[in-house]
Amino acid sequence: MSALLTLCVVLLPLATPGRGAQRREPCTDLRPLDVLAEVVPSDGAAGGVRTVQVLGARGLQLSAAPPHAWSFPASRIFFRCDLFPEEFSIVVTLKVPRLPPKKNEYLLTVVAEERDVLLLGLRYSSTHLHFLFLSEDMAGAWQTRVSFRSASLMDSQWHTLVLAVSAGSFSLIMDCGLPVDIMADVPFPATLSVRGARVFVGSRRRTKGLFTGLVRQLVLLPGSDATLRLCPSRNAQLAELSIPRVLQGKPGDNEVLKYPYEADMKVTLGSRPPCTKAQDATFWFDTARKELHLCASSQWVSVLAAKAKLDYVEEHQRLPTNSETLGLEVFGIPGVGLFVAAANRKAKSAVYKWTDGKFVSYQNIPTHQAQSWRHFTIGREIFLAVANFGPNEKGQEVSVIYKWSHRKLKFTPYQRIATHSARDWEAFEVDGEHFLAVANHREGDNHNIDSVIYKWNPSTRLFEANQTIATSGAYDWEFFTVGPYSFLVVANTFNGTSTKVHSHLYIWLVGSFRLFQSFLTLGAADWEVFRIGDRLFLAVANSHSYDVGMQLRNDSYTINSVIYELNVTAQAFVKFQDIPTCSALDWEFFSVGEDHFLVVANSFDGESFSVNSIIYRWQGYEGFVAVHSLPTFGCRDWETFATSAGSYLIYSSAKEPLSRVLRLRTT
Ligand SMILES: [Ca+2]
Ligand SMILES: [Ca+2]
Ligand SMILES: [Ca+2]
Question: Taking 80 as the threshold, does the pLDDT of residue 617 lie above it?
């Protein structure tokens, strides 16, 4: 005890900072601070970011927006204290226009907002690059300007500049070349306060002096000289320390899925001009033939061909199936691989395994008008349940749960459950217990029957009926949680006289599901739940509008499907968006990078099964906006999956024995 006390007494003085050291804690992180990324909204699309690709690299054009759009409080990067680092470097990659004499444009400024005083700035003119900073002492404050000759900046090429500052030494390096060093009488201040200041990119807070070129990189590296990290570089004009996400990616890649993109529209007229790396992404209009060409990878390609390349998705695999496929379920088995189970209309369904980048038939399983498969796990055990719509050879209506045999590497029958024209299984867990819910569609002609929720009994190791819920032509169950609450929503299709019926959402309360909210739906075939940020949405696929005695017409199928959003205050889902669909049977939500998409399975327009299915992109305030049409035939189900090689969509057809795997083209 006393030894410990002594130790504490000895350690105590050591823990107090030595007065003589005077070493300041840095106010920022000592890593490259991507100033440009700070001003680019993470959702580039919504922020109206203007991205321009020129000479094979992308840059931002800032002059389209007012100066304040490209600024942020200095406290965002100087979060520990208010002092600008004494030693630092600034890295800029830019392409500047030729400026008239005497005109100046600002690349970066730090402005004390209240006093409207420039604390630090970087600007350039037709001949010089100027670094400005505020010096203060007892006598007052004055601005110091350090100027580098920079005529070669104006040659319409990309350049990467590193300005390294350390006390009285200012050094400028262009494209990893020889440094130009200036020793100034006035050193950079050791204590430049940025309290209440704002960082402006491409301006000095006003429209005057707005940067009109393209900027690709703007990084502050506190504490050190960035040339040590950047140079030498294979591509010195575009040497990278940190680039905002919106500007990343290989030029030429399709990135329609990512951000709005424009090529610098430079069109050469006349006979064939050269097409080398320098002309990349420029156009040539062949005046004789009236054809537009794009220079890509040192080759002129006709713009029609270039357009085809700009597809969101490309066909990756045509997957012939045993018969028409009603449902698809993609799942992985740890250590074994990736699989898709196809619910086929005729006597057998198939499980395919992803092998060498394609789905290959793996196992056939006898089914009876199978509608869908559901994969789930209980502990280490892996199951696959099929919803059989038709009766078996003995006339019994039975759906089957299969279990993966780790020994045989196949699915084997595990439990049979009596169902009534089963459409769908949903598997979920509440409070550590496992459940399966079946959507019983009809019994004979009666659509108003019970659907059943089964609970896993760990001692018998079987599912047992736990709760019945009255449904009307049930088609789909979807489970989700919100915080501690568990929800189950059913898609009711038809009550015997009309498809205009309520589909119900249930909440789990003390041991069973109770009605929470009802939605008026039109032949609802699918519910899809998804999250964007902290918002929760439910989308219903409305298949058709029909009342007994009414003639089915074309406009019975071209109806709205609806997206609802959870309003936490109202504790209810409220309508968010109507989307016109053609006998929609499925919604599938997926994300690519930071973008979110919904794809709908449009199956029938009243006349034909050849209907386009549509991909919608989340555009925030505007909701979901159609961005791509995919020709489909009797489209029934969409699923998404990803492998190390990329992201894919797969869809099945209820009208032909062919499913298709599509690859998402991303940067
Ligand atoms: Ca479902
Ligand atoms: Ca769905
Ligand atoms: Ca689906």
Answer: yes
